[in-house]
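From the shared-data thread, chain only:
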Amino acid sequence: MVEELVTAGVTVACAGAVYVMAAARVVKQYERGVVFRLGRLTKSVRGPGFTMIVPFVDRLRKVNLQIVTMPVPAQDGITRDNVTVRVDAVIYFKVVDAAEAVVQVEDYRFAVSQMAQTSLRSIIGKSDLDDLLSNREKLNQGLELMIDSPAVGWGVQIDRVEIKDVSLPETMKRSMARQAEADRERRARVINADAELQASKKLAEAAGVMSDQPAALQLRLLQTVVAVAAEKNSTLVLPFPVELLRFLERATPGDAVHAAQAAVTELAEGALSIGERSEQPGAKSGQA
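Structure, as tokens:
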């Protein structure tokens, strides 16, 4: 009798252990458990931790609530201004209602992927090339709204959508490069023309000052001579002013006038050289 009780107790204990092993489930922190009892969804969603189900009656399906990063395959399309482009994107989403994600759609990941591809092609057809290249933030928001509208009914929330890259044909790239080069050349010419205008105004003001003060022209000439002589690689030839000859003619009497004129004429014909010649090998001396 005792042996039968012991055997029965062992059997019950084994059965209980088997039942516990079959019924025990562990749901992780980032998961939620959706229970189907005889094919019907139960009202309660199992939270993280240890939980029990009825073996052979309940079926527990775990749903991940983490943010999913899904790349959207590159889509070929024609923009509103008839340019062929290839655009790819990335989408970030997460499940906010585990029961809806399991019941309302067969595979919410595949559904979101297909919806993202369709929306991306639609965005390409509605946008200009300049918008795809420079106004991506607005396009990202529009793309997010297009995907989020049907995803709400699936228990999925779209967190963010980003357009990663826009590939253009080589002919379009060359055209854009020529356009950018032409625009930069136009700006360079405008800047040069503006600089010439400003320089001409300053030169006109300087000419007005020099016309009022003739000595300023001589000072400017001497400054130019000093600047050229500093190079030490050229010969300077200064013309002798005729006004000096006339001054000497009026101020010097008799033979002294003729001697001064002869000396000045000789100097004028010989072209008085001031400055330093270049010392480079093979350089030829200048003739007056």
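The radius of gyration is 48 Å.
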